Amino acid sequence: MLLLAFDTATPAVTAAIGETNPDGAFTLRASASSVDARRHGELLTPAIQGLLDEADLDLGDLDHIAVGTGPGPYTGLRVGLATGHALADALGIPCHGVTTLDALAFATKRTGPFLGMTDARRKEVFWARYEDHLTRVGEVRVDRPAEIDTEGLPLVGDGARMYAELLGADPDAAPGTGAFEPLHPDAAAMAELALLRLHRGERLPEPAPLYLRRPDAVEPGAPKKVRQWVK
């Protein structure tokens, strides 16, 4: 079973092709990631084609697609979801949704509790609590870092790194020491997680965006009355 996974809900543009055999053993065929918050639309399609070339595959060889559903900034998130829907419709294969924070958590392989966080902008973070890399407790939330009770648990993700001091963590933790890592979701982990769930017979959610805020854009109200002064 071949699956293409990708995520554009964070500054990272990440894509991967994974495969499972009948016993459920996972093999990563190809993966690529880059961090550029302004070029999701430019980077994703070439990245997918590059993976297919590296794995010596055609689009028609794919059996499933998995796409990150966020939460994340509107524009970047929609790039991945629109691409997932378009490819699935063209190929006639299923497209599944995977919560971006769940993919981030799965990549940690942690066996104990921790918090996963991504940057939500506006001085807020998207976050969730996990019992281990496979088990989320409750729903994903959006809050200001100072309002989150971290319970002294390990923190994972770029959102945690950005607001480490407000969260009670060491803001000077050196890169490469494992502090806050992984910072961004990795499609290789997303592919493995999606294939694991499919092999177990679980029903993956629809690839719909996970929005935790009302949109900034609103319909304009009635025009204000302007008084005219006559001398």
TrEMBL record:
CDD domains: ASKHA_NBD_TsaB. InterPro entries: ATPase_NBD, Gcp-like_dom, T6A_TsaB. Residues 37-147 form the Gcp-like domain. It comes from the Bacteria. Pfam families: TsaD. One of its GO terms (cellular component) is cytosol. Transmembrane segments: none annotated. GO terms for biological process: tRNA threonylcarbamoyladenosine modification. SUPFAM superfamilies: Actin-like ATPase domain. PANTHER family: TRNA N6-ADENOSINE THREONYLCARBAMOYLTRANSFERASE (PTHR11735), TRNA THREONYLCARBAMOYLADENOSINE BIOSYNTHESIS PROTEIN TSAB (PTHR11735:SF11). This is tRNA threonylcarbamoyladenosine biosynthesis protein TsaB.
